[in-house]
Amino acid sequence: MKLSQMGSSIFSEVAAWKGETLKSRLDVIDLGIGSPDQPPALEIRQVLSDAVLGERGYSYPASKGGAAFRNKAAAWMKQRFGVTVDADHEMVGLMGSQDGLAHLALAICNPGDLAIVPDPGYPIYSGSLAIAGVRPWMLPLLEENHFLPDLDSIPDKVWREAVFILLNFPGNPVSTEVDIAFFDKLLTLAKKWDVLVVHDLAYSEMGFDGYRPISILQVPGASDTAVEFHSFSKSFNMAGCRIGYMVGNREAVAALQELKSNIDYGVFEPIQEAAIAALDLAMSDESYKGVAGIYEHRRNVFVEALAQEGWVVPQPKATMFIWAPLPCSDFIPRSGGSRKFARELLLKTGVALIPGDAFGSQGEGYVRIALVEDEERLLVAAKRIGRYLRGER
Known about the structure:
By secondary structure, the chain is of the alpha/beta class.
C-alpha cells in the first residue's frame, strides 16, 4: 500500500507513547510536533474575526488564491527578498505549504519518474513521492558536511532521470543555512540537466544571531528553473489557518494550480484576509518584531540548560528545531537507537521528542526537539532529561 510508504506514522506512534505516559499520570512536556504555542498577533486575529462575521466570503474562493492575497504576497516577496513576481502566472495559493508539497509530484511527474529528496528530510517530501508513484533518490545530509548536500555526489544518471530536486534551507529537521553561491551552483546544475528545483522556505522568518534566510529566487533567472514554498504557519503563528503559496516557474505553478482546481476550492477568504493583514503588519509596522526573537531566546535558554545537565547539543541558527545527536550516557538505551531513546525518555520523564529516523535513514542517532514550550517548561524539561541521563528517578 502507498500509505505504508508514508513517513508520518512516527507522529502517530509518538502520540501513542504519550497516551501511555498520561496513563501513569506523568506530566507531558511535548517538544515533538512543531506547532507554534503562540497565537497570531492581535491585529491579525481582529481582521480574521471581522471577516468571519461579515456576510461576504462564504462562497467558493478562487482555487489559486484571490488576487488580493496573491498581489500582497508578491509585494512581500519584493520587499523581503527583492524578488519581482508575476502574481497572476507565477504564484498559486495553498492550504499551507504542506498541501503543495504533498501534491506537486502528482502535478508534474508521471508514475515511475524519479525525484531527488534530502535524507534526513521532512516526511512529506518522500511521502508525496509514494502517493504519486515517483521513485525517490535520497540525497544524504551528513554531519561531516555540516548537513549541506554534496551536489557533486549526485551521479549523472540520477540528474538525467530526475524531474525535480527538493531542498529546504533552513531546514526541518536540520536547520542548515546556505548562501547565494550555493543556490547559484544548484541552479546551474539543474539547468544543465533540465531538472526543476523545489525549495521549501517555510522558516523564512526564523533566523537567529542576525541571520536572515534567503530565497532561491534572489538568483537572477531562478524562476526559469525553480519554485519556492512559503508558509504562514511558523512565520506568523497561523498553523491552524492553513495558508501558504508556491511561487516561481510558470509551468510548475500552472500544473499545481490545475491539479488543485480538481481537488479543492482554495482557502477560506477570511483566512486570506488574515494572511494579507499579517503581511501588511510585517511590511509596514516598524514595531512588529516577528517570531524569531522568541525562538532565539528559547534556543539560548534550552541549549545552555541541557549543557548544564551534561547533554551538549548544537545551537541552530534558524527554525524552531534543535537537531541533536543522542547523548553519551550509561543509562540511555543500548540498542534500538533514536526511536528507543525517544520512547524511554518520554515514558520515564514525560518529555516528548521525535526520533531522528522518522526523517530518513540518515536521521538515526539523532532526535528532533521542537522549541514549542515557554522558557519555564523548557527548563523543567532539561532538568528531567538530566536526571534520566544520570539514571536518577
